[in-house]
Design a protein that fits this description.
With 177 residues, this protein is of the alpha+beta class. It has one domain. It is built from five helices and six strands; from the N terminus they run αβααααβββββ. The strands form two sheets. A four-stranded mixed beta sheet has the order 1-2-5-6. Strands 3-4 form a two-stranded antiparallel ribbon. A hairpin with a 2-residue loop joins strand 3 and strand 4. Helix 2 runs antiparallel to helix 3.
């Protein structure tokens, strides 16, 4: 017998969470991400609508880039005479207001990040935990629940013919990286 790496309470809590996160579809498909996926707006758990194995690529970027594109399109519509001066000014003011709000939000998030980096994370626990799985070849439900606290998913945003979506992974002990 050796000294346990984690407390008995942590062990029991982890297994309780593992058992409550098991969900099986009508076809027998078990979603290994069940209970981990959360909505970025309301925090509720998300399900998978299409589990057919289609590969999804995630593209992340700042929303201010989209606003710049919208503003450029708006300006071009005004130059082409598609919208009136009054409508252009109204819509332009809205874009600028949204841009300011996003800039303020970005500053707040950067401040939180700086504050989070200044805190003493329990990196040693995370490194010890992850080092046990450095040669893992496949993900399974148990490993996901052991290493990940939650995965926050934003709404899809249409960009031309494709969609983008922001996904943020919150790891146990260290949070979002």
């Amino acid at each position: 017998m050796h000294e346990p790496l984690i407390s008995e309470q942590l062990w029991e809590d982890a297994h309780l969470r593992l058992n409550t996160r098991k969900r099986e579809s009508k076809s027998g498909f078990v979603n290994i991400f069940a209970g981990l996926l959360k909505c970025d707006k309301c925090g509720y758990a998300l399900g998978i609508a299409n589990a057919s194995g289609i590969s999804i690529t995630i593209h992340c970027k700042l929303p201010t880039g989209e606003l710049s594109k919208k503003y450029d399109m708006l300006y071009n519509d005004r130059l082409d005479g598609l919208i009136s001066d009054k409508k252009f000014k109204e819509m332009s003011a809205r874009c600028e207001s949204e841009q300011e709000e996003l800039s303020e939000r970005l500053e707040q998030l950067e401040e939180k990040l700086r504050a989070g980096n200044e805190k003493a994370f329990d990196l040693e626990r995370f490194v010890d935990l992850i080092s046990e799985y450095e040669r893992i070849e496949t993900l399974d439900k148990e490993l996901l629940n052991l290493l990940i606290d939650k995965i926050v998913v934003s709404d899809r945003v249409k960009e031309g013919k494709s969609f983008t979506q922001t996904i943020t992974v919150y790891y146990r002990f260290v949070g979002c990286m």
